[in-house]
Design a protein that fits this description.
The chain has 5 helices and no strands. By secondary structure, it is mainly alpha-helical. The protein is elongated and about 55 Å long.
Amino acid sequence: MLLGDVMESLVKSLKVLVSDVVTFYFMAHGYHWNVEGPDFSQYHSLFSDIYEDAYGSIDPIAENIRKLDDYAPFSLQKFLDLRTLEFKDVQTNPKAMAKSLLTANESVIQTLKKSFTEAEKADEQGIMNFLADRIDHHQKWSWQLKASTK
């Protein structure tokens, strides 16, 4: 594979990643707004921690795309076109929301790992470090979401 092709694959994977993270962010934020039930406070707080973390990662992902001399997607339609993450609205039940968010989070982890593999092929150490850190954050969310659904 030529270096240009490797970089193109990395850029494409980062564009999918930012689109999936934007989708994940909206999902977690929507659950934060709409959760109800006896464990409202705990889930409201957990969903807040998750969406704030996801939101904080969107700009660095886009900046990594710009570092590779390409343009980050920014329209809602482009995010919808690029995302691989799908979700459906769920009831306001906290456990159902947590299970749905867990499934989405596991998909984000897979997208992160694909981007990491592409960054490794391109020998982009800084991007690899960033992605490894993001994988770790999302694995933490998986653990907390799993524990919250038992």
